[in-house]
Amino acid sequence: MKHTVIESYFKEHREKHLDELKEYLAIPSISSLSDHKQDVAKGAEWTADALRKIGIENVEIMPTAGHPVVYGEWLKAEGKPTVLIYGHYDVQPVDPLHLWDTPPFEPAIRDEKLYARGASDDKGQVFMHIKAIEALLKTEGTLPVNVKFCIEGEEEIGSVNLDQFVEQYKDKLKADVLVISDTTLYAKGKPAICYGLRGLCGMQIDVKGAKGDLHSGLYGGAVQNALHAIVQLLSTLRNDQGKIMVKGFYDKVQELTEEERKAYEALPFDAEQYRCELEVPELFGEEGFSTLERTWVRPTLEINGVYGGFQGEGIKTVLPAEAHAKITCRLVPDQDPQEIAELIIEHIKEHTPPGVTVTTSLFDQGKPFVTPFDHPAIQAAGRAYQKAYGVEPAYTRMGGSIPIVETFGTLLDIPVVLMGFGLPEENFHAPNEHFHLENFDQGLRTLCYYWYELEEALKN
Amino acid sequence: MKHTVIESYFKEHREKHLDELKEYLAIPSISSLSDHKQDVAKGAEWTADALRKIGIENVEIMPTAGHPVVYGEWLKAEGKPTVLIYGHYDVQPVDPLHLWDTPPFEPAIRDEKLYARGASDDKGQVFMHIKAIEALLKTEGTLPVNVKFCIEGEEEIGSVNLDQFVEQYKDKLKADVLVISDTTLYAKGKPAICYGLRGLCGMQIDVKGAKGDLHSGLYGGAVQNALHAIVQLLSTLRNDQGKIMVKGFYDKVQELTEEERKAYEALPFDAEQYRCELEVPELFGEEGFSTLERTWVRPTLEINGVYGGFQGEGIKTVLPAEAHAKITCRLVPDQDPQEIAELIIEHIKEHTPPGVTVTTSLFDQGKPFVTPFDHPAIQAAGRAYQKAYGVEPAYTRMGGSIPIVETFGTLLDIPVVLMGFGLPEENFHAPNEHFHLENFDQGLRTLCYYWYELEEALKN
C-alpha cells in the first residue's frame, strides 16, 4: 500500500464521504425510545447497504430480542489474521432539544466539526471503518487481513441482547483480534490506545434494627440506631487514606510495571487544572499513586448511595429502624468480581455492629480487562497512529467498564484493541454532539495503516 | 380533709362526672386541622365553662396567634402556696378512622375503659383536675393552696404560641409549683412521678465534594466521595460501644446518685420483654448503664437521617458530590444545648476528611430539665400517690423532651411536677385511645390529697 495513494483517495472523496455520513447521521436511530423503532431499523438497513456497496459479503441484518445486529464479512485474505470490527449504529436521545445549536438529525459542519447526534458516538466511527475498507479495496483491490463487521443497535441501552447474540454466533464471530472504535483520543492531537478497563462488582447493604422507627427521646441510648450501625460498618470499608480495608481485596491486583508507570508519568496531565475543573478543595486518593494510576490501574470501593431515616426539611427526632447503602467496586486485573463480592460480604459479617441485622444483595458484575501493553496487536495500533498523526500515541487505560469488551473478551477469548477517534470534549450523550473532522481524516488513514501493521505484527 | 368524705363524694358523682367528661370528649378539638377551628374554640369554651361552674374566678379565654389559652384562678388561700396547673384541651387527628372500634368523638365505656380521642391525652386529665378542685370546694368549702389554671389549645401542634404567651403573662402565671398531668403511670397499679426530662440539640451536616456527581469509573479513586466523607465523619461521633466521642460532651453530665441508681434498679423492668417488643437481636447502649439509665439520665447523639447519592432500585455507578445527615442529641443536666452544639461543630471541623467541605446548621434546642428528686413538691406528690394507690410510686425520668416544661421552667423558674394518670398502652395519638377508669378514680383522689400534702410540704 502506498500512503500517497490512500491519502489522495480520501482527499478526492472527502466531500462524497461526508455527504454519505450526513445521510447516516440524519437517521434518528434512538434505541431507547420505542417511537423510534422504525428509525433504528432504518439505521440497520443503511449500515447493511453501506457494507454491501463496498464489497463486504454475506451482509445480514440479524434479529435479536431487541434491535438487530448488522453482520458482514470479507474473508478473502487466505492465511491472514481475521479482525472483528465492533461498533453501534444506535444513538442516545437528544433532550433537551433547545440546547442544540442546529437540530440533532440535520448534520451541519461548522469550524471543521460535524454536528449531529451520533457524529462521534458512534456512527461517525463506524462509518470510518467502512470507508477505510472501501478505500483499500478500491485502491489495492484486496485487504491485508480478513474482516468481520458486527455493528449493533443497542449499545446505548446497555447492549442488552449482545451477550446472547455473541454466545449464539460464537463461531461466526471467531477472529484473532477485536477492534472497537468507540473511545477517544487522549487529547487533541494525541491519539490513544486504551488497553485496559476496570471491572465492576457491587451490592446493596440493608441494615435492620428495631421493628420500626422509634422516638429518639424514649428509646435513644438503649437501642442500636440503624444509621449509626451502617455508618460504622461503611467506615470500616475504607481507611481515611483511601485504602480499601477489606481483607484480601488487593491480593490479586497486578502491580504496575515500571514501564507503564513511566509511560503514564510522561503523559501530559495537569492535576491542578483537573482539581479546578472538578471544583474540589484537593484531590484525594490512595497514597503512593498518581491520579491517572488511581483511576486506571487501582481498584476502588465507592459508596454510591446511602439513605435512611428522615430526609425532609428541618428536624425529626427519630431513631431509624432501617438504613441502606449501595456500594460498587471498580476492579483491576486479576481481581475477580465474584471473589471480591464474597470478601466484602465476609468483611460485613465480621464488622456488623451489635443490635442490628445486615443483609446484602449483589448487583451485576463485570471482569476487569487488559490486553497486554506489549501485545503485537496493540503495538501495531501504536505504529498506525504514529504514521497518521505523526506523534507517539498514548497507551492508556480507562477507569470505567465497557460491558461489551468483557462480553467479547470472555466469549471469544481474543485481544481487544480500543482505537477511538473521538475527543473527550465532543459532547457524547449531550446536546451539540460533534466530531472533529481532522480526526475523521487522520482516523481513516490510521485504520488503513493499521490493517497492514496488524497483518505484519501477527505474522509470527 | 377527711378521706372518706372525698371518696364518698367521687363515688356519688361518678356517673355525672363521666357524663360530663363524655360531653367534653365529644368535641373534636383537633388543633392541627383548620377545618376544626370552630371545634377547638368550642373546646376552649367548654373548658372555661367547666372552670366557672366549679367556682374558679377570672376565667378568660385568652387569644394567641393560634388557638386560645383558657385561664382561671382561685386565690383565696391567703399565705398559702400557689399552684399552676397546665393541661391542654386540643387533641390529635384521628386517622385512620376505620381502625377505631367506636367513633373517636362518640365516647364509649367498655371494660371500665373510656374510649375516645383525648380520653387520656389530655382532656381526661384536665377534667380530673377540674373535678378534684370541685370536690374540695364542695366538701371543704375551700382549698389548701391557691390555684391557677392554664389550659392551652396547641399542645398537639408543638405549643407554637405558648412561649410568647408565658413570656407575656409571666406575672399572671406566677406560682410556686407547676403541676402537669399529661404523662403516664410507670405501669398498671404503679404510679410514677417524672422528675426529669432530657433536653435537645441538633444540626444538619452537609458535605460537598466535587461540583457535581461524577462517573465512578472515570473519576473513582481520584476524588473524595462525599458519602465516604460523611460516613467517616459520622463514625467518629460515637464509638462502637455507644460512647459519644465529642470532646467535652460528658463534662457537665450530672452523675446518677447512688440513691437514684438503686431506685431505678428496684423498678420492675423486663429487659428481655423490651428487647422482644422492639424486635432487636440485642439491646445496645453505653457500657456500664442499664436501659433505664441509658434512656433517662445519659445523653445521646443519634443520627436521624442520612442521604446522598443514588437511592433508586438497582445500581448507579455514581460518585456522589453531596451527602447530608441530621443528628440530634438528647441532653441531661447540666449539659447546655448551645455549648454541646458548639462542641460538635468543633469536632466536625477537626474530623473533616480531605477533599470536601462541611457546613452545619443548627436546629431548635431545648434544655434538659430536672426537679431535684428530694424536692418537697416531688416528695409530697409521692405521698399523695401512696395514699390513693396504696403503693410506693416510681420516681422516674423521661428520655424525651416536653418543650412546655422547659418553657415554664425557664420563664417562671419554678419546680415542675409531672403527675400523670395515663397508661403507656392507652394509644395516645393512635386509634382507640382510651383511659382506664381505675386511674380516673384513683387519680381524682391523688390530686385532692396532693394539694394538702403540698401545702404541708411547702410550709417551711
UniProtKB/TrEMBL annotation, chains A, B:
Organism taxonomic ancestry: Bacteria, Bacillati, Bacillota, Bacilli, Bacillales
Domain of life: Bacteria
UniProt protein name: Acetylornithine deacetylase/succinyl-diaminopimelate desuccinylase-like protein
Keyword match Endoplasmic reticulum: no
Keyword annotations: Hydrolase, Metal-binding, Protease
SUPFAM superfamilies: Zn-dependent exopeptidases (SSF53187)
Pfam families: M20_dimer, Peptidase_M20
Cited PANTHER family: BETA-ALA-HIS DIPEPTIDASE, SUCCINYL-DIAMINOPIMELATE DESUCCINYLASE
Domain Peptidase M20 dimerisation: 195-355
Disulfide bond found in the keyword field: no
